[in-house]
Amino acid sequence: MSQITNVMKMHTKDHVTLFFVPWLILFISFTVNLIIGFLTGGESPLYTGGLSSIYIAMLISGIIVLAQMHPFAIGLSVRRTDFFLGTTGMIVAVSAGIAIVLLLLSLVEQWTGAWGVNLHFFHLPYLSDGSAIEQLLIHFILLLNMCFLGFTISSVYQRFGRNGMYYFFGTIGLIVTIGVYLCSYYKWWLDVFHWFSNHTAFQLALWTVPLAVIFLLVSYLFLRKATV
Fold first, then answer.
1. Cα–Cα distance for residue pair 38/40, rounded to 1 Å
2. Section 50-76 average pLDDT
3. Strands 119-120, 46-47: pairing kind
């Protein structure tokens, strides 16, 4: 347990990757959209995909934190299992903190009348339709999935190197291509759309929980065999 705690403390000393980068990217996106709202005078509602920037940032952070910290931790004789558990614990804590702040910003956006410029950045239709607890869990689950996905991508590189990345993304591209072809050939697109429209954002988020577990298991298996 002490080693796991030490790994978590190790991550707190790296203020950039998990703590600074996601908020910096989100702040820049929000500022740009807020300026656009002022320039347009708020005459019409402004809906943007700017909130997605923090999810993308967490994906990048998941890639970087493993690439940077894993070799360093192994050099300090930290067991791979302890590193994995400590890093996972830190990611869960950071994701929970971000989810709470995003929920609070969503409430502030409602109280301020969309920031006074009709900008809908944090409180969005469909995504924010549920209760406060559901909105919180949506953010939390999505953040975990994105960060653990980045963790998995980086673990593939740690285990198999550059060639492994080629095979990994090639396989993902092949699966997506086959899926798109099948949906087009059998005309499933309307059924897919109806399936998504019949579920709330919270329900869809719950469906991705097993995906996060898969990301964790895959990354753990790869890290155990990593040479670095």
1. 6
2. 88
3. parallel
